[in-house]
Amino acid sequence: LAKTTQPISMDSYEGQEVNITCSHNNIATNDYITWYQQFPSQGPRFIIQGYKTKVTNEVASLFIPADRKSSTLSLPRVSLSDTAVYYCLVGDTGGFKTIFGAGTRLFVKA
Amino acid sequence: NAGVTQTPKFQVLKTGQSMTLQCAQDMNHNSMYWYRQDPGMGLRLIYYSASEGTTDKGEVPNGYNVSRLNKREFSLRLESAAPSQTSVYFCASSSGTGDQPQHFGDGTRLSIL
Predict the structure, then answer these.
(1) Minimal CA separation from A103 to chain B, in Å
(2) B1-17 residue pLDDT tens
(3) A102 and B100 in contact by Cβ < 8 A?
(4) Predicted pLDDT at A49
(5) CB-closest option in B42, B98, B104 to A95
(6) Can you tell me the distance from the alpha carbon of B64 to that of A26, in angstroms, rounded to the nearest whole number?
(7) Which of B13, B31, B1, B27 has its CA nearest to residue B85?
(8) Which of A43, A84, B44, B90 lies deepest, with the highest CB count within 10 Å?
(9) A38 to chain B, minimum CA–CA distance in Å?
């Protein structure tokens, strides 16, 4: 299973773009990269998933370079409500043993 | 839109007591999971069920048992609770293998005295 490494915490201000980078040097050929968001007292919530290049949805963008050894979650114009923990996971294709790291605690200030 | 429903939301047990945490999903998902999350930590996989009728150990299975009752329901049992099992327990479901997004319940907060 590919291990991921993320910054422990990040601070930002309302209206700024936030980029959270995740390293996954041992990613396998068929693995996907998935990001989750978790608010206090709630279960994680799926944000975005990608395999290569760029994926965008209504919430975020995910940038994956050609070597796929890292990925960057981009949150445009964050608000106070984006304060949460963000987890980067690399999917274990063909298996189910999902590994959540400690995640990145994003704190958005007014 | 219930999604994944966990019961109870809170529970306090004494050491040695037994307890079953319930989880049900209404998304017709094949796979279901149980995680625990300790304060300030990420989630750790306890057990998972790839499909109805199958269960397998995750990262931290000791002290727990599971039952995949049917496609909708996946329960987690603590036979003899220990203080080290104080945690928040999350159930999740997904449509397929580990690369498929998982949908989580809101958790059960369990304290063992």
Answers:
(1) 7
(2) 679 999 999 999 999 99
(3) no
(4) 92
(5) B98
(6) 31
(7) B13
(8) B90
(9) 10
